[in-house]
Amino acid sequence: MLRPHEVSIAPPSKLLLLLEMRAYSEYARLILSWPWLGRLPRGDGHPVLVIPGLGGNDASTYLLRLVLARLGYAAYGWELGANLGMRPHIKNSLRQRLARLHKVHRRKLSLIGWSLGGVFAREIARHMPQYVQQVITLGSPINGHPEANNAMWFYKLVNPRYKVHSDWGDFQRRRMPPPVPCTAIYSKSDGIVAWPCSMEERAPNTENVEVSGSHCGLGYNPQVIRVIAERLARPNTSHFARSAAA
Known about the structure:
Elements: H1 14-18, H2 22-32, E1 47-51, H3 62-70, E2 74-77, H4 88-105, E3 109-114, H5 116-127, E4 132-138, H6 152-158, H7 168-175, E5 182-187, E6 206-211, H8 222-232
Parallel strand pairs: 1-2, 1-3, 3-4, 4-5, 5-6
């Protein structure tokens, strides 16, 4: 059931939704800051799987994966086309891809999920933690109220059988983090997902990191890139110093 403070959580305002146009400037800022990326922590070569958000495909995460490759990681897209929600073949394909990449590299993977992709990343880590080093979510609707966002209309359009009440049990279960280190990156000026819904529950293996920017630009936001680089480079991701906002 909803907790008292979650009843009043509403989707972001129309003003914040309009401000999602900032994503273009965030993309440009990342391009302009390309030389600065060389000063970020270098990677150890472990594989990283990046899962796009609702309606997005691997093209939407290309620049992020390019940055990760420059930092020394083996960055992969999910290779499943546009993300229109979880389907049985998507679930099976993701599990197979995770197992295959683990076999190829003989190392655990870090999973980065943007928006709905973060929901997928947490669930695959929940079911296959032996293959996962850590999970990083970007503005993902993992908590709060499942309809406190400005993308539900599109989700319902492409998933006509979705019923919030029938899915409530699964949503309640998904609140709890998977048994791996989890970092939730969120923005209080997110125009798509209400920011309280993008935060992890307090736990020894979770942390919440606030950035400034739009939802649609999270994968290009230089602040987000810095946080991702720092978390991926941590030698021991089993313990976190939680942010004050966590």
